[in-house]
Amino acid sequence: MDALNWHFLGRHALNGHFLGIQRIGTSWAFNELALLGHALNGHFLGMALACVELTLLGHALNRHLLGIR
After folding, report:
1. pTM
2. Which residues cross the membrane (predicted)?
């Protein structure tokens, strides 16, 4: 059950990531939460550090595109 929850959290986070980049009315708070979920998802599934680094890059890009300094 836990693994299934993480799977859905990952999909939700990924959706938030792309919605954030496209600026389709998502708030910055939702973006932060979604990208945090994405990073945690990669961590708990034992993915490579590169996945987390890519997530953090996406996080920085989102902040830039949403005008958050």
Report:
1. 0.22
2. 42-61
Chain position carrying tokens 């990669």? 42
Averages of pLDDT over each 10 residues, the chain, 69 residues: 52 54 47 60 51 61 60
Domain count, the chain: 1
* Six-digit token string for 67: 């005008």
In DSSP notation, 18-40 reads HHHHHTSS--HHHHHHHHHHHHH
CA pair distance 60, 31, nearest whole angstrom: 11
By the 8 A CB rule, do 14 and 59 touch? no
pLDDT for the residue numbered 21: 47
Domain hosting 11: range is 2-65
CA 38 to CA 67: how far, in whole Å?
21
